[in-house]
Amino acid sequence: MDGEAIEAIKRRLSLKEVVSRYVALKPAGRGRWKGLCPFHQEKTPSFYVDEEKGLFHCFGCKAGGDLIAFVEKIEGLDFQAALERLAEEAGVELPKRGGVPNRKELYEVLKLAQAYFQEGLAAHPEARAYLEGRGLTPESLARFGLGYAPPKGDGLLTHLARHGVSPEEGLKAGVLGEKGGRYYDYFRGRVTFPIKDHLGRIVAFTGRALGDENPKYLNSPETPLFRKREVLFAYPESKAKLREGRAIVVEGLFDAIALHQMGFPETVAVLGSGLSEAQARLLKAQEVREVYLAFDADEAGQKATLQSLDLEMARQFLFYAVRLPAKDPGELLLHPEGPALFQRALEEALPEVDFRFQEAAKGLALSRPEHKRKVLEALTPRMLSPEPFDPVAERLKALVVERLGLSPRELNEYLQSRRRGKPPPPPPPKAEPRNRALLLELDVIALLLSLPQERLLEWVRYVADHVWPPEGSLLAEFLELAQKEPRKDYLRQVLSRKEAGGILFERLMLAPEVEEARLPEVVEKALARLREAYYLERRSKLKELLQQSPSLELLREIQELDQAIEAERRIYRGL
C-alpha cells in the first residue's frame, strides 16, 4: 500500500534536510527551523519547518503541507511524481501501477543506456577524434560521462532487450522512439551527454551530431524523470564550488565542460535559452550569491541574459553579464590563453544595472529626445519594483538620472504616473475567513490530524457521532473521507488543495501537543464551540425569517436554540 510506503519514506528522510536544499534554515525553537519562503518574495522569514510534526508552513503566503507536498510544490510535480522521487531517494519500493514502470526502473533503464553509449565511444574512433578536436581531455570525458550512440537504428533497442527491458520501458525513459508501431534508437550517430538531477542520477541525455546534421543538438523528450527547465547540466559536479557563493551559467554543454577543464568548476549550463525559476532555486539551494551569465555573444544570448534577469527569483542574486572574447566559452578551450581571457572577462563583467542600460541604449543616440524616451520606457518595468528598497531598481534610477538628464523629481513623477496606469498589484494572501464556524471546523480537523495515526479513526468516528456539520461543509467532507481512508498524509494532501488549506496548516503548526489524559476534555470543548457556532448560524437565519413572517413556531425554535447555545457554553467554559 502507498500509505505504508509513505510512512517508510518519512522515517528515512528528514523534512528539514530536504527543505534545506532549497531554503537556508535557522533554528527557531525545539525541533523547528525558519527561513525565507521559497514560494513568495519576502525579506523577513515567515516560513517554518516543524520536524516533529513533519510539516512546513509559511505564515505569509499560507503554503503548507508535509514532505511530499513540499517536493510537489517546489519541483512543480504532481503527487505521484513527488512520491516516486522521494521513494527512490529513500530506497523505498513503491507498488507498481498498472504495468507502468516506476521511477526506479526508469533510472535503471537510463543506466543501461549510459553503459551502451560509453561502450559506443570506446568502439568508435571517429567520435573520440571529434571530442579531442574540441579540446576535451580523457579526464573530462570520464568525469562528465560522455558517450556515443552508434548510427545503427536498433543497437540500444537490442542492448536493452538483452537486459530484460521492453521497448515500452525504453520509450518511457526517453531513449527509444516509436513510429507506426516500430521502436528505434532515439539517439543515433551522436555524442551523448548524460543529464543528471540534483542528486547526480541520470534522468536524460543530450545528443550532439558529429557533423552539420539538423538538429545539431537533440534532447531526450520530457519524461516522469526529466523536465529540462528543472535541471542544470554539471550541477552535481559543481556543487562543492557553488557553495563558495559564485555560479557561472552558460548555454552549451560543451561550454560547461570546457570551463570546468579551464579551472572554473562553478560552471553549470541551462538546457534551453535563459535561466528558469526552478534552475535559479537549485543555485539558491547551494547558497549562491553572485551569478555570472556567460551566454553566447550573439543576439539570442543577450536576449537569454535579459530573460534570466527578469525572473522573480533573480532578485535574490547579484547578477553580472559576461562579455565573451569569443563566440562562446567552448572556443576558448582551443586558445592558448583561454583561461586568462575568460578570467579577464569575469573581472570585467557588467553588473546587472549597467548591462540593462547598455542593452536598452544599444543602437540609439542619447542626444536625441525620442531615443532617450525609448531607453526610459525599456527600463521602466524594472524600476517599478514592488520591493521598497530594491537595490537594482534604485541603482537603475540613479543611472537613468545621470545618463538621460532627468532630475530625480521628474523621474519619480514619471514612474508614479506609470504606476497609476498599471493594473492593481495582486491582492495579498487571503486573510482568515470571517466565518466562525469554518474556523472552528478547522480547529477540530487540526486536532484530529495531530493525533497519532493509530488513534485517528477512533476519534473521527467519535466526532462524527457528536457533531452534525451541514451538508457541503468542510468538516462533513473531511469526516466522510476520513472514515473511508483514515490516513493522515492522504487527508492532509486532499485538504491542502482546499481554499482553507493554508489556514488549516497554520493551525496544525501552532497546535500544542495534547496529553493523552486531557484529550477527551480538549475534544469535548472544541466540539462544544463548534456546535455553538452551528446553532448561532441557525438562530441568525431564523431571526431573519421571523422578521419577514412572524410565527409562534419560529419563536419557539429560537428559544430552544438559545437553551442549546447556553448548554454548549457551559461545556467549554467548564461550568
Automatic annotation (TrEMBL):
Enzyme Commission code(s) on record: 2.7.7.101
Gene Ontology MF terms in the entry: DNA binding; DNA-directed RNA polymerase activity; zinc ion binding
Residue numbers spanned by region Disordered: 414-433
Taxonomic superkingdom: Bacteria
Keyword match Metal-binding: yes
Record's catalysed reaction(s): ssDNA + n NTP = ssDNA/pppN(pN)n-1 hybrid + (n-1) diphosphate
This protein's UniProt keywords: DNA replication, DNA-binding, DNA-directed RNA polymerase, Magnesium, Metal-binding, Nucleotidyltransferase, Primosome, Transcription, Transferase, Zinc, Zinc-finger
An annotated GO BP: DNA replication, synthesis of primer
Function: RNA polymerase that catalyzes the synthesis of short RNA molecules used as primers for DNA polymerase during DNA replication.
Matches recorded under NCBIfam families: dnaG (TIGR01391)
Domain observations: Contains an N-terminal zinc-binding domain, a central core domain that contains the primase activity, and a C-terminal DnaB-binding domain.
Protein name: DNA primase
Gene: dnaG
